[in-house]
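Weekly sync, protein design subgroup
Attendees: M.S., D.O., the rotation student, P.L. (late)

Item 1: inverse folding check
M.S. brought a backbone from last month's batch and wanted to see whether the design step gives back something sensible before we order anything. D.O. pointed out we never logged the input encoding, so this time it goes straight into the notes. Structure tokens as presented (192 positions):
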């Protein structure tokens, strides 16, 4: 098979972040702009982002919503809380709003990677607390927090984080996820 773009091989969800590393506002803006330009259903653009850099009150407020298992993200240079619409009346808008958020998050993560950072999406946060803290209006739902930062020296990491960050990245073989005319049978397009 051909070669996928190197950005996909570089991207990984590291937890071992350098707590002293900073991120310039210009890089944050570029990363957010990549998310803004993601494809969107019917041009609706339902994704909104709340952004903080380590040391400011927005970062601290986002960090306060994180689940205990995500305390490693306190070493991130920036945290981005991503929201989309919560339109229970229009099932398509509700569903595609989540799809749009996924596409925006992917582009955010890839742009961060292209700039030399690591970005890690997290679903482990208290969405109700986020709604309350940031006064997120009805009709919007927080779905994801993304940490953005620089990798720490592995020698400075706890053994638990070291083990998670050095674990081999794997995915199912393409033949197990890309089907043709019958579910479970690989598409013939994958044959040499």
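Designed sequence read out in the meeting:
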């Amino acid at each position: 098979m051909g070669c996928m773009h190197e950005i996909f091989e570089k991207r990984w969800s590291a937890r071992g972040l350098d707590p002293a590393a900073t991120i310039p506002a210009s890089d944050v803006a570029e990363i957010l702009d990549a998310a803004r330009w993601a494809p969107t259903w019917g041009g609706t653009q339902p994704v909104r982002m709340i952004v903080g850099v380590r040391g400011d009150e927005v970062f601290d407020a986002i960090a306060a919503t994180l689940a205990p298992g995500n305390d490693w993200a306190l070493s991130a240079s920036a945290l981005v809380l991503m929201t989309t619409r919560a339109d229970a009346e229009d099932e398509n808008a509700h569903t595609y709003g989540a799809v749009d958020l996924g596409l925006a998050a992917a582009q955010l993560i890839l742009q961060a990677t292209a700039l030399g950072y690591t970005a890690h999406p997290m679903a482990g946060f208290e969405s109700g607390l986020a709604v309350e803290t940031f006064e997120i209006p009805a009709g919007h739902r927080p779905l994801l927090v993304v940490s953005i930062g620089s990798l720490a020296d592995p020698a400075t990491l706890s053994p638990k984080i070291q083990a998670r960050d050095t674990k081999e990245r794997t995915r199912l073989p393409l033949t197990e996820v890309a089907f043709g005319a019958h579910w479970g049978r690989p598409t013939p397009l994958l044959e040499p």
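Discussion: Helices lie at 6-10, 25-36, 57-63, 91-114, 127-134, 159-166. The mean pLDDT is 89.
Action: P.L. to compare against the previous round before Friday.
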